[in-house]
Structure formats: structure tokens, C-alpha cells
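Q: Give me a protein?
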Amino acid sequence: MDGSEVTLDRIRTFVRVAERGSLSAVARDMRIGQSSVTRHLNELERAVGVALLSRTTRRVTLTEEGHHYYLHAVQILRLVEEAGDEARRAGAASSGLVRLSCTAALGVRHIGRLIHRFQDRHPDIEVDLGLTDERIDLVREGVDLAIRLGALVDSGLKLRSLGRSRRILVASPSYLERRGRPETPADLERHEGIRMFNITGSERLTLEGPDGTTHVVRFGGRLRVDNGLAAREAYRAGRGLGPAHLWLVDDLLADGQLEPILPDHALPSIPLSLLIVPERARIARIRLMVEFLAKELAGIPGIGRDAWSPG
């Protein structure tokens, strides 16, 4: 290969470095040596005749020329991939890699098995499923789609609403035998709560009564967690009571390991959304995954369009 040519491999490497800001991270993503990443970049810069990246020992950033080149390079790669998808659709099933991010609890309880079903239908599509409760930068991390719980700030990503996630108050029978069953929202203040410390406002609970009255009560306890799966285990172990998404505890409610508390009072539901990197949205395998998730998530316990949201 001529070192002075602009090639797709070199453009792909440049785009990934521009998005990730790290040569070593791109080397891991692409499963090549860091020296190969450096060589691709040097050869591309030599071919276009300008410096596209500014390198320091800690960070790689785009030059002004590199920023303009990146915008065109992303479009070139998208067109190449779409052309390949069109050709494959003409004679074969869709194939390639989909990178999906999801909150850990939802991923473990439901999304994992949905991905199994998706791959049974589309055996040539690979899936990288990343589970994290952090709000990652999809473009920088090289992720195509993300399933997110909670309100979202405005961004350049495409958003598809998947509905709202219903929550209920739960506790184990052993906890209720030991501490008694709350009869009113005010009773919750005297109980041991399991609280999510990484969620703003979790030190208070807002409930809507059967007559439409809104109750706001203090909520706290000795155990605070930052993951829904940890809260699930704490509830089951009788360590306290608290709110849980229905999809997180539906099996424990069904077999009696947990019981609903104040079932005639409703907690605010939480928005569930699918974020899509715009440049990836038209790729066939991404579209297949989006439509599959939108349909299948509607069948998960507690996910629906009609649920209470304070306001």
C-alpha cells in the first residue's frame, strides 16, 4: 500500500482517534497495535498534506484542519457503510457489529436475554453489550445505541421514547414482620430505607394517593447504594424497604420474596429512552436493533405509555 494514499482504513483510524482522544484506546477498540494506529495517522496526514491532530503525552486533539476533515470523513464512512448494507440486503441477511449501552440492572434482568433473541433472528450480527450506570459519551466511546432511564438533557443524539417505567414500594416479609407494615406515607419516615445515593432527590419520596393528593416524605436509612441490583438484594435480604422498578423485582413479587407497600399510592414513573448516534441511524443493522428493542421493551413488566409523572 502506498503510504501517500488516502485509504478507508486510515480514515477509519483517524475518525476513531478523533472521537476517543486516545491512541491506546483506539488500538484496543480496533484490536491492532498502537504502532499501527500511529502509522495510519502519519500516512493519512502525509497524504492530505496537513496536520490533522495535535498530540501530547496525555491527549490527542483535532487541529482546525483536522476538525473540518473529520466532519467530511464521518460522512464518507457512513456512505460506504450504507452502500455495503444496501448490497447485502439485495442478496443476504444484514451483518456487522452493533454496540449497545444500557443501565446495569435493566441489562442483567432483561436486555441480555433480548439480545440472545435478536441474534437468534439475525445470526450474522455481532453485539457488544456494555452495562454501566454512567452517562457515557456515545460518540467518544464508539457506542451506537444507549438505553437510558431518567430525564435527558438536550444533545445532538437522536432520541426515541420507549415509554415510562413504573415503580412501586417493596419490602421482604421478614422486614415487615420485624418492623411492621406502613399504613400511610408518613409512616415511611420511621422505617429503614434503601436509598440510591447517585440519584438526585432520593432522600425524599413523592407519592400520589388514591384521591389524587401528593405526599412528599423524608426517606433515608443506613444503607445507600448506586446500583439497582444492589438495592434488589438488600430488599430481598430484609435490610429495608424502598422504591423499585417493577421490571427489577417482578419475579421476587411473584414468588413472595418481596411484597408491595402502600399499593394504593403511586410513585412517579421514570422515562425510558433509546439514544441513537445520528450518523449510525440509517445503517441496516442499527435500524433492526432499534425496531426490535422498541417492540420487545414494551413487553417488559412495568413499561408502558400511561403512568403518573409529577408535574
Summary: The chain has a mean pLDDT of 89. Residues 5 and 47 are 6 Å apart (CA to CA). The first strand starts at residue 53 and ends at 55.
